[in-house]
Amino acid sequence: MVLKKTLSILATTTLAVGILAGCSGGQKNETANNGGNGGGGGSNVIKIATQTPLSGGSATLGESIKLGAQLALEEQQANFEKLGFKLELVPYDDQGDPKKGVANAQLIGADKQIFGVVGHLNSGVAIPSSEIYEKYSIPMVSPSNTATDVTDRGLKTVNRICARDDFQGPAGAKFAVEKLGAKKIFIIQDKTAYGTGLAEAFKKGAEELGAQILGFEGITVGEKDFNGVLNQVLAKKPDLIYFGGLYTEGGLLIKQARDKGINVPIMGGDGLDSSTLVQIAGDAVKNTYMTSAAGLTTVTDAGKQFAEKYKQKFGKDIESYSAYGYDAMGVLLKGLENAIKANGNKLPTRQQVAEEVRKVQDYQGVVTKVSFDEKGDNKYAKIYIYKFDEAKYPAKLEDEVSKQ
Amino acid sequence: MINEVLHTLPQVLIDGLTLGAVYAIVALGYTMVYGILELINFAHGEIFMTGAFVGTAILLTFAGFGWLASMPAIVALILVLVVTSVVTGLLGMGIERVAYRPLRNAPKLITLITAIGVSFLLQDIVRFIAELKNGNYILTGPSLFSGQIGIKASSISSIFNDASVKSSFFIVLIVAVIMMVTLDFFVNRTKWGMAMRAVAQDRETAALMSVNVNKVIALTFFIGSALGGATGVLFAIQYGTIDPYIGFILGLKAFTAAVLGGIGNIRGAMFGGILLGVLEMFAAANLPVVSHGILGAEYKDVFAFAILIIVLIFKPEGLFGKVSVEKV
Description:
The complex is a heterodimer. Chain A is α/β, with parallel strands linked by helices. In chain A, 50% of the residues lie in helices and 18% in strands. Chain A has 2 domains: 42-163 and 299-372, Rossmann fold; 166-292 and 385-402, Rossmann fold, CATH 3.40.50.2300. Chain B is mostly helical. The radius of gyration of chain B is 21 Å and the shape is globular.
């Protein structure tokens, strides 16, 4: 009896799956057909895709990159019209999910009219998705992926305009030792890939500059009581504490340190860059420094203008990466334009566009100047150092450290 | 080396006692339910967390209406503690009625799984509500007792460094002690307490002696959960920031404390909690000193749990547990 039942259930499931599979197969064919028709209709349409999270937890940031890119694209439309091409933006939602990002990348690869991608927000999504772009030779310009692996794999199509993670630690160390005069440093990290990596890079940088490391201790993510580690700090009396980790633990650590009367500067990476940090730590957040790959857009005139244009058009204030979306699109379109010109004003191949994007030198964007090196990293990328002077987010821009 | 350890000892003891007091009261909840039902109520950590959220929500509402500034902090604290205890107590009773009572005669493993299910459910419900109301599930409450008090430990002996204490430390410790003493009195000296002990010993016989078993079990859940919820409030006051996942690690440690003290034994849970808190804090502050930097502070849990294992090897019933005779 039982066997019979199982069998029948199995049979039904197989049937249902089969039907579903059939359906989805049909849909795929349909979209492919549509794409083909569209391609036949207008051969001078060039589409640029954005891939960022437009839904879910980080939708605000994802959307801001998309809007920045949209602004840049719309400004260039007239210019490309003269060359005989119609520019279009196709926004994709990667949901901050690597699986979704890769699935979208396949769709982008299949759409012959797409010649470039601006994205992603998350390095974890960018890394697998860019494998697909490489397969189809679609150039990607990333506004915000700081993980070293994004460009270290040596893919020809992958470029970024922001700084790399392994530069954040040394840049922080340089600032701590040279500007803050820290000689004895205590390092705490959260035992995650991000936190430990950052803390180790900082440690190496600080040691090279002659600072003494008093301790390198770990805490556990999810815990709320860090008094044990802080008692060590209290006993060792450092003149700076470096924390490699995220804002939830960072906020508590800062607060509990100040409660214990540890008033030396505390420094961390971009993992602290959140308004929640200020909420958690409250007034204790004063005298906290953090490094970030995102610069303040509104410190330059060009940045202020951009912020106004953005506000006027979308009715929203800019986010930290809006201008990076704008600049990423700018660089991509610059490469595209060069490719079209090099090809005698005819539609270039994706490969040509990818090569031209990599060749872009000294492009002046709103927040950053862009020159790609042989790996696709931006030679002009900077690390920005922020300081909290009061319990208010965002923090004040204190200094910028450039690679060269 | 010994000197270095002694220098920080006053501060380590104070921090350890705070953490230990929290562990101890949460451990009580595990131990009471286990003593009566032989059920490990894994949802108890989440009840603690819910308590922290309810308490913070009340405090935030008070602050929103501007009442917090106009009433003495102590009154606000007592009010919040009482309301939160009632809410979480009822929640605990509800969970027992819905998730455990129908399964009372099912194998123990089934109820254990239900308990884990309930704990996930609570985590996500709280996260959902917090996100809906606040836009962010990490909540920071108003600070009630944030004054600092310096303790001149160096005047006792020059070996010690001075320690500093948040005034909330005293609140946490005093409230914890009051709760534990009251509970001890209730269980050992009152009629209901006697009924609870009777049910714990033998449910059927207790029923024959005209003890209303369902009522007693519901009461146990109410008291255990009320204490857990109140501890959540204390935790929120001491540490300031809470999220829906604080119950997991803390619940695990409190459960360990209950086992260390002898599960089912109320005084054992209190002692086990305090011991675990102090050990953990001591290890975090001194492991690198004692081991010359080979073992970092991150090994504090390894240290604490190694001690647990050693204790259990030599005394499997826990420090205060009685050797249970197999009932035939």
